[in-house]
Design brief:
The complex is a heterodimer of chains A (413) and B (487). By secondary structure, chain A is of the alpha+beta class. Helix content of chain A is 27%, strand content 12%. In chain A, helix 1 packs across helix 2 (52-70) and helix 3 runs antiparallel to helix 5 (163-174). In chain B, strands 3-4-2-1-5 form a five-stranded mixed beta sheet, with helices on one face. A five-stranded mixed beta sheet of chain B has the order 6-7-8-9-10. By secondary structure, chain B is α+β, with helices and mostly antiparallel strands. Chain B is built from 13 helices and ten strands. Among the domains of chain B are: 1-40 and 131-288, no CATH class; 355-484, 3-Layer(aba) Sandwich (Trna Endonuclease, Chain: A, domain 1). Classes of the chains: A alpha+beta (413), B alpha+beta (487). The interface between A and B is large, with 111 and 124 residues. Strand 10 of chain A pairs antiparallel with strand 10 of chain B. Chain A: Residues 34-54, 387-413 are annotated as: Disordered. Chain A: Residues 66-134 form the tRNA-splicing endonuclease subunit Sen54 N-terminal domain. Chain A: One of its GO terms (molecular function) is endonuclease activity. Chain A: Residues 399-413 have a biased composition (Gly residues).
Chain lengths: 413, 487
């Protein structure tokens, strides 16, 4: 029951199991059998109950964790992947592609050389899938020289980089620690993550094979209500600017055949205003506005193609609690503005509630608070487009045509 | 006042029973029949519909008749105007006339009972407490019973856990006696057994809850009217609820059995028992009617009251010392003043120099916005938000959306936005609301500047135009969990 807060069981979509401490015994199962499923969690033990059963369970779990951590990680020469960090270009060059991770990472230029973004490099190095070297040679003077160079030619592999060194070299180019934390969190969760093409600093990555930006709106006016010119005409015709009672009741006494008719009169006239939210500070430079899409995220899928990924499943905006608070209306508008939206019918397909919750478009705000990430989906809901059914449903025997009004179009399920 | 309230009592009781016609055949179901809410709450507004004769296009008389009706519509919609009294102490409008209270609750769920959680049920509760068998169970009682059941369930679960623990301890002690080392594999099996048993129990415990969250079958599902949720009783009803609980143990269960049998001549002395130790078998099932004076009134939020006064024109507001209804401008001014606590000084509120950044005005704009879209809007103070949105009404389904008003000053020169609205503030609100399965909706209200609304008080429909200058944009929030969105 909602009031008691008891219903929140394990099946609740809002319960994040990763919030809880892991029972590491499942690791033992996985390492032993080389697979297996993650077991369901049992009851939480809050205090020692004095039984051997509890303490041995705890010991088992602890040992499983130590065991998992103590496994020596190694890779054979065959799967060894190496890269070189180019500080000037702020990208890493891959020497040979090995492993499945490259299916959803990196990008090849015209010569076939594979390049990694700084966050991709950091992620790979951190998880031990890649060894990175610092290039000591002088950097090529220009793009042409770089591309003419044969892969592997003239590169010294003699300065290996530690994880710390990779962090030091590449972190700034990722856009900040918070962004990298969200990136690696999403990657570890299995998602395919790319930067928003507009935020790419290198041309190589800017060109993507899918539509991700909404067509610019026809008018520059700020359209909150979507009434357009008809609304203006409608309002103008009914209003005039005569003198009279400013408190005129919205529902004059009279004969109303349906409640929908009454509700139509109760609606606040939706007059547009000529005002653009861009006038205020904060919108000017894209750098200063933290509320922009940072990552495009795809659900993991086996047939993912870097070259033709299709439109992303989620858009993520990374922000830090240190320098932001709840976005203002202008921020929200700026965030939604460029995202293509679905039409009302598509949104309604999932039902009234779900349609309003998902909205016409949405952005996930990843709020990073000193390394703790909280994801929250902000959806452009448009309650104003959904008039609920207000008249009682017509009786089966009665005249359905007499119902009148255009309440909610969909009959209740 | 006394006879008026008893009338009201009869009316309330009448509505409850009339809706669920007490058939002569004794219904032998365990749960009492739920009133037909579809019938009681058929009207979404306390305004009367006009049922015109059907239009027959090829009949000239019918056409003429309709033309006449079009030109001179019969004024039917507002045949009553209810009276409310503004109370500066509670900063709300009180409605005391029982028919008005009933109408306002049944047609659009306006206000709340001053001694009840939501629907004004104090009189019914009191009558039931005194042994009246004609009054149906109130939602407060149902909720309390459900909570008691849950409490029992938890006690039982704790007891079982303890038992299980003892068993384990005994087994371990025995094992120690037999040989020094306890085996490792066996206890884990026992562990999982406990867990499975407990899980089954938990799912049993949650069953009524999941049942009631299905709003699709409101009529078929008996015994669980879903009242507007509240975890706490009102402070004012504390003493009342305490006295009630003394008797509830002995009386609730037997009384909830529908009074089916035609009773022999009454033995009225036996009905009211203040001794909680009385055995339940002795409670008689015969009919009994009790007369109680109603102590409860309906409380309207300022936004609700203003909607009824201004938008619908169905309510007149007076004050305790006024003799006749106040004119609308005065009501408006009063509400603007009482939008904060302590109220704004009289001199600071002016209609000519209206300050659009008034919290009553902002709240009213949002209230009006959602009301006019067909939602039933109730106060969200219990869930740390401004409003709750119900589809059709609180008896039909739980509120799905929790409205958080965010005033926005994008048109104001040099004014900082969202001062104090840090992330932890938002997270705490969304956490509270996701626990009760509500979606928090940020409702941005772009407030016009004072210049934009200047001159409104001389124009026809001036207030309507002022309201139209506020821009509303809704942003629904939902926690997103990476582990749960992969497929």
């Amino acid at each position: 029951m909602e009031t008691d807060g008891l219903t929140t069981g394990f099946d609740d979509a809002d319960v994040d199991l990763s919030d809880e401490t892991q029972d590491f015994r499942f690791l033992a199962n996985i390492t032993k059998k080389g697979g297996g499923s993650i077991p369901k969690r049992g009851e939480k033990d809050f205090e020692p109950d004095g039984t051997n059963l509890q303490s041995s369970t705890l010991d088992d779990s602890r040992n499983a964790m130590f065991q998992a951590l103590s496994v020596e990680r190694s890779h054979t020469g065959k799967t060894r992947a190496t890269a070189t960090w180019h500080p000037n270009r702020r990208l890493a060059q891959i020497h040979e592609q090995r492993g499945v991770l490259f299916k959803a990472m990196g990008r090849a230029d015209k010569t076939g050389t594979m390049w990694l973004l700084p966050e991709e490099l950091m992620y790979m190095v951190e998880r031990g899938s890649l060894e990175c070297f610092y290039e000591q040679d002088r950097e090529p003077q220009d793009q042409a020289e770089l591309e003419n160079k044969q892969p592997g030619e003239g590169i010294n592999l003699n300065v290996p980089m530690s994880v710390q060194a990779v962090y030091a070299a590449a972190l700034e180019a990722t856009g900040g620690l918070e962004r990298y934390q969200v990136y690696s969190n999403l990657k570890r969760s299995g998602y395919i993550v790319f930067r928003d093409p507009a935020a790419q600093f290198d041309d190589l990555f800017r060109n993507v094979g899918y539509e991700y930006k909404a067509a610019p709106p026809a008018g520059s006016r700020w359209n909150l209500w979507g009434l357009g010119i008809f609304g203006t005409l409608f309002n103008g015709a009914f209003w005039g600017t005569g003198k009279g009672d400013p408190f005129q009741s919205m529902l004059a006494p009279g004969a109303y055949r349906s409640y929908a008719e009454m509700y139509k009169r109760l609606a606040i006239p939706k007059k547009e205003i000529t005002w653009t939210p861009t006038t205020k500070a904060g919108e000017g430079g894209t750098k200063s506005n933290p509320f922009t899409v940072t990552y495009h995220v795809w659900k993991p899928r086996p047939n993912f193609k870097k070259s033709a990924p299709g439109p992303p499943d989620f858009l993520v905006c990374v922000i830090s609690t240190l320098d932001t608070r709840l976005p203002s209306l202008v921020d929200v508008d700026g965030l939604f503005k460029d995202i293509p939206e679905v039409d009302r019918a598509t949104a309604r397909q999932k039902g009234l509630y779900q349609g309003l919750k998902e909205g016409r478009r949405n952005v996930i705000l990843a709020t990073v608070d000193y390394g703790v990430i909280s994801y929250m989906k902000f959806s452009d809901s448009r309650f104003g487009d959904e008039m609920l059914e207000v008249d009682p449903p017509a009786k089966g025997k009665g005249k359905p045509g007499n119902k009148g009004g255009k309440g909610g179009p969909a009959p209740k399920k | 006042m006394a006879d008026a309230s008893t009338n009201g009592a009869a009316a309330t009781a009448g509505a409850a029973t009339a809706a669920a016609p007490p058939s002569n055949k004794p219904p032998h179901s365990a749960k009492p029949k739920r009133p037909n809410y579809n019938l009681i709450h058929a009207d979404p507004l306390p305004v009367v519909l006009y049922h015109s004769p059907p239009l027959i296009p090829h009949n000239p008389i019918s056409l003429l008749h309709h033309l006449y009706l079009y030109l001179f519509p019969p004024v039917q919609s507002h045949n009553v105007v209810y009276i409310g009294v503004f109370s500066p102490v509670t900063m709300s409008v009180e409605v005391r006339d029982p028919t008005a209270v009933l109408d306002l609750w049944n047609k659009g769920f306006w206000g709340k009972g001053s001694l009840s959680r939501s629907e004004p049920t104090w009189l019914n509760r009191e009558m039931r407490r005194l042994g009246d068998t004609q009054v149906g169970e109130t939602s407060e009682e149902i909720t309390r019973r459900r909570r008691d059941q849950r409490k029992e369930m938890k006690k039982e679960r704790a007891r079982k856990e303890k038992e299980e623990l003892l068993k384990v301890k005994e087994a371990e002690a025995k094992g120690k006696e037999e040989d020094g080392s306890a085996s490792n594999g066996k206890p884990i099996i026992a562990d999982s057994k406990v867990v499975v048993g407990l899980e089954a129990e938990i799912s049993g415990l949650d069953e009524p809850a999941t049942e009631s969250t299905q709003p699709s079958l409101p009529a078929e599902e008996p015994g669980l009217p879903t009242p507007p949720p509240s975890s706490d009783e009102l402070n004012t009803s504390d003493s009342e609820s305490k006295t009630a609980t003394v008797n509830i143990g002995s009386e609730t269960l037997p009384v909830s059995v529908p009074p089916t049998t035609e009773s022999p001549p009454a033995q009225p002395a036996k009905v009211v028992r203040f001794d909680s130790n009385t055995s339940t078998k002795e409670i008689p099932v015969e009919r009994k009617t009790v007369t109680v004076q109603n102590q409860e009134h309906l409380q309207l939020m300022l936004s609700e009251a203003f909607f009824l006064v201004y938008a619908l024109g169905i309510l007149a507001v007076t004050t305790a010392d006024a003799t006749k209804p106040l004119p609308l401008p005065e009501i408006f001014k009063m509400f603007l003043r009482y939008s904060t606590f302590p109220p704004l000084p009289e001199s600071s509120v002016s209609l000519t120099n209206l300050n659009p950044d008034n919290s009553f005005l902002i709240n009213y704009v949002v209230y009006h916005h959602f009301r006019s879209l067909g939602w039933v809007v109730k106060s969200g103070v219990k869930f740390s938000v401004d409003y709750l949105l119900y589809k059709r009404g609180p008896v039909f389904s739980h509120a799905e959306f929790a409205i958080l008003i965010i005033p926005s000053y994008s048109r104001w020169e040099g004014r900082e936005e969202n001062v104090g609205k840090e992330w932890y503030w938002l997270h705490s609100i969304t956490r509270v609301n996701s626990q009760v399965k509500k979606t928090v909706v940020l409702v941005y209200v772009d407030v016009p500047t004072a210049d934009e609304v200047k001159g409104w008080d001389c124009e026809r429909d001036g207030l309507k135009k002022v309201l139209g200058k506020y821009k509303i944009r809704e942003v629904a929030l939902r926690r997103w969990i990476p582990g749960r969105n992969r497929e």
